[in-house]
Amino acid sequence: MAPNAFGVHERIIPAGRCVVVRHVGSPDHIGETIYPIYRDWLPASGEELRDHPLFFHYLSVYPATPQDQWQTDVYVPLK
């Protein structure tokens, strides 16, 4: 991707396993979905995190969908 005035650049998401959780609602409250993954699910699962940040797949967009009805898949990379 060519350098641009928007600061948008290309990154490759490496292949691998992820835990995926769907967040429904405003992105302002996505932490309510993310924190329990790390606090509760991960320690109980026996899984380990991969050295890669979590990422999102936005299934809804504004203004077509009101923010309180957005659906966003949260991907947390696992070893």
UniProtKB/TrEMBL annotation:
<dbReference type="InterPro" id="IPR011256">
    <property type="entry name" value="Reg_factor_effector_dom_sf"/>
</dbReference>
<feature type="domain" description="GyrI-like small molecule binding">
    <location>
        <begin position="4"/>
        <end position="79"/>
    </location>
</feature>
<dbReference type="InterPro" id="IPR029442">
    <property type="entry name" value="GyrI-like"/>
</dbReference>
<dbReference type="Pfam" id="PF06445">
    <property type="entry name" value="GyrI-like"/>
</dbReference>
<dbReference type="InterPro" id="IPR050908">
    <property type="entry name" value="SmbC-like"/>
</dbReference>
<protein>
    <recommendedName>
        <fullName>GyrI-like small molecule binding domain-containing protein</fullName>
    </recommendedName>
</protein>
